[in-house]
Specification:
The protein is α+β, with helices and mostly antiparallel strands. It has 2 domains: 69 residues, no CATH class; 82 residues. Helices cover 55% and strands 10% of the residues. A 4-stranded antiparallel sheet has the order 2-1-3-4, sandwiched between helices. β3 and β4 form a beta hairpin.
Length: 213
């Protein structure tokens, strides 16, 4: 079953291209279409540089006329860390990645007493936290993504610092007012990103209210 959170997240996984960090070229869920539009703009001499943003993360990369789409995708969507290959006999690692964790003695004592030991208990705790804070985490990531794009596109515009504070304070009415003087292409794009953050923040508030019942 698709939830409201899933719908917002799927619709926000767009890519956006800007000419010389100034003029909005296009936004689309299909990276290939955005790259083709960027290439055409470069070939036609409409821009000296084209930047593509992954809107959900704020990651960005410059596009060249001959850049391979998959190479661009990897720059925008860094691959998740994978576990090293298993060496020698024994049970497979099942995708587990070893990391060092620092805890107090009482934490280790509690974890060690849980079924399956400390590692299994930590994995269960993380999975539970991911389920109960999913909307909250998504809202935070959306605000961070909007801020990254803002820094590149309007970092030198009036009201940038005030609008950044409004974004993180979830004061979206003030964000709308403070962004009014910005160039139209950047302004409307950033307002769209802020609107995603607002919608996710509203779902996060419902998530917290539900946990308090």
């Amino acid at each position: 079953m698709t939830t409201a959170l899933d719908q917002i997240l799927s619709q926000s996984r767009t890519f956006s291209a800007f000419l010389d960090h100034r003029d909005h070229l296009c936004t689309n869920l299909d990276l290939a279409l955005v790259v083709q539009a960027a290439r055409n703009a470069l070939i036609e001499g409409r821009a000296r540089a084209v930047t593509i943003f992954q809107d959900a993360s704020g990651n960005r990369t410059e596009v060249g006329p001959q850049d391979d789409i998959e190479a661009l995708r990897q720059r925008l969507e860094p691959a998740a860390e994978t576990a090293p290959e298993r060496q020698g006999p024994g049970r497979p690692r099942l995708g587990v990645v070893a990391r060092e964790v620092s805890l107090l003695p009482r934490h280790w004592e509690w974890l060690g007493a849980q079924p399956g030991g400390a590692s299994a208990a930590l994995r269960r705790l993380v999975d539970q936290a991911r389920k109960t804070t999913r909307a909250r985490d998504a809202a935070r990531q959306a605000r961070d993504a909007a801020f990254r794009a803002m820094t590149i596109l309007v970092g030198d515009q009036p009201g940038f610092e005030e609008a950044s504070r409004a974004l993180y304070a979830e004061d979206f009415e003030s964000f709308q007012e403070l962004s009014e003087p910005w160039p139209e292409g950047q302004r409307e794009h950033l307002r769209r990103l802020a609107d995603v953050a607002r919608s996710l923040g509203e779902l996060a508030a419902l998530e917290v209210a539900g946990q308090g019942r």
